[in-house]
Amino acid sequence: MKQFDRAGEWLVVLPDHVASVVLAEKLEPAPQRVDHPSGRPWLIGSWESADFRIGEAGATKIATLGFSSAGPQRLAQIAARTRRVTDLDSLGGKLPGCFHLLATVDGVTHAYGTLSGLRKLVYGRAGEVTVAATRADVLAALTGAGIDEERLLLRLLVAEAVLHSVNTPVWRGVRLVDEDSSITLHPTGRPTVTRRWNPPLDRLPRKPAAQRLRQALGDAVQARVDSGLKLTCDLSGGLDSTSLSFLLARSYDQPLTTLTQGAAAPGDDDPMWADLAAEKLPGIRRLMLTFADLPTHYADVLDAAKVPGTDEEPFPGIEDRPIYRRIAALLGAEGSQAHLTGEGGDEVVQGGSAGVFDLFRTQPRVALAYLRGYRALYHWTWSDVARMAFDQRHPYPAWLAARARRLTTHSLDDESSPLIQMPPWATPDAVAAMRDLLADEARRTRQHGHNWTAHHTIWGIRLCAGLVRRTVPLYAAEGVRLTSPYMDDAVIDACMSAQAHERRTPWEYKPLLADAMRGIVPDQSLARTTKAEGSPLEHAGIRTNVAKLAALCEDSRLAARGLIDADKLRSICTSFQMRPFTPYAMSMTFSCERWLRDLESTAAMEAS
Fold it and tell me: Would you kindly state one Gene Ontology biological process term found in this protein's UniProt entry (predicted)?
């Protein structure tokens, strides 16, 4: 089938059922196939042999797809000890790396992705049985599913706490296996989805938590080294990528190549900190990119994607896509096979400052001191504080229900509380439909973790993972695997075990990571307290490419579906009526518009 030729890496998981034979034929020709011990098809798809490992014992096979510390022999040992598929649910946190776990045990099929969603799984009904897959568009092609416009509408939401809108498939009948869950496909073809992980209580004091993070992050980097691939690493000057560079330099037995970008805006001191770190990394080869070397934001927004694997869902951060492409091409030309990025460090290591309100319930005096610190740091007014505290007085489902009732379009300038709003160019019908969607979600959703701090942390991790996951195909097109060690299961669990008020404070920058890297990263780098902010470049990109953005408003596919007022969107773009969240809302909207047009281009190409 032609649609699978453009999917990049993909894998379909089939149950040990006679119907799977027919489904496998529909997926042919596929480069790879692995069978159940019964001889029926189990895994079929397209992947690099270096990324796939498998071990077996008797009627059990266990495989990993991605970076895994377990080789075939280790997997065979695990297979020999496995009696039930649920015995495997804790492996994701015990085996360093970032991978899909796939198993068949006595005819029962089992699979899961990663807690971050960086490697996700979806499932749906295909004929007589339910099947799982690593890509929603591949499963949609197999089942004949079309676009679910309600789910597409969710992608227009300007939201900072609605977890369901982050990674939900936009194809009708295709469902997400929750990131903290696993799916079992029984020989009858019936599926069962089971929770495999709960966020740990944040009770671990700072010192032992830092030791856990040191071990987990070191193991994560080592899993990439053990892949045998040629590695490169970001060295942005930030603490996240600097830590990865020093960890990698300790165990990588080849000359290390690092990538540093120039200053993103006036006052951006990232390059200075990168230079200071590089002085303590003898023998490295540095790739240096100035922003004059990079295209502007939105430079390619009128270009069809034409990259295998980008048809699955709208590309979040569409404005940054040309920059990712340029960086990927540079790394590919240097021979990089895997590139380590610090993405996810902010979200995993720190979590959210909202933890101060949860802290009032257990340590009110400490919480008051923290609140004063955050007020000074972020210039919160007491009105801001009251609104944020009011927002968190109920668990997430009740909060979402209240927000759904009040949902409307907004001026996009409320920075003091978690946002749920529609952009000003959303149509009244779209807003009304969104209210119904959110109200329905509130009735069936759950809060992730025992408090709002845990919930916000998980939301941030999954949002970041969604962006990285959509960027992966751009790097893969240049022969480079993009990988984020901070989003490994064990790293997430280690950080979320730490007391929230000790992993993020208003007086220290990333204290948990700094403690974890003491003795590995030079003290000079650990002492950094600043963070670069790149919004001026995004605004410049909008001004430079405003004609291209206006062109996307012509014959808008979103407008044709009744979701946006294209004239209003064009007016805001061309008049530069920018509130703090306007660029973010524009990005979400143009991502969906570009995706719909790309689907049309792909369909036309396959029909020719």
Answer: asparagine biosynthetic process
